[in-house]
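Write out the 3D structure for:
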Amino acid sequence: MPVRPTVGLGLKPQHYAEALAASAGGLWFEIHPENYFCDGGPRLAWLEAIRRDHPLSLHGVGLSLASDEAPQPPHLARLRQLADRFEPFLVSEHLAWSFWQGAYAPDLLPFPRTKEALDRIEANIARTQDALGLTILIENPSHYLALQGHEISEIEFLSELCRRTGCGLLVDVNNVFVSANNLNTSAEDYIDNIPAALIGEIHVAGHRPDPRFGPELLIDSHDAPVDDRVWRLLSRLTGRCGARPVLIERDGNVPEFAALMAERDRALRAIGQPVTAAA
């Protein structure tokens, strides 16, 4: 029978061998597809091997869906090629932009949530889904300052994108916590009001205080263990929406594979799933 994904980890090159050998029930792995836009070599070979035993998801960082330009056709073609080959059970992208007038910024940049932006991003999601032949999930962003010009709340904006395009939501609980801290809003209210039926995946990650401003400005750094308050928000969300695939993101100060698997056990407990020994 196919494995039902429960809690997954971001796949790192230094962990390929241990990921290949892992046999914990429900374990899955997520990759940034842009790291695998190649025609051959060891990365694709390892991914092929891991995919035989574990579900994969593709979590994009380069489509720039909030840009005023359409997603780049070469990027979409590469993404389609990867999705066709590895058949991920989920494909997701960020509600942000990084490409403008031929220049690419290696960041996920914010934008004012206007009706014009809603129309533009709707069109970009539709182009993406048409090019891939599948539906995608859209991730809520992290916020570091209060932008001017918003006409629509974030939850309303995300919900309307889903209604118009058929896409789903990837709820990053750490992003919710970081944004609420930085903008002085309620993370609990956000978690309680995001439409449960639209949620297809959940992320948790670590964060750090800004070196200059301290805990008043939290950075979504992905380089630390998940904070206790984020674990509580995860339990709160899944207590309302039920089981969803959960991913632990760790992109900096990456520990040993065993440490990530221990954090995975904590995630299973947080969402009320049994922690079972590897088969």
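Residues 115-132 form the longest helix (18 residues).
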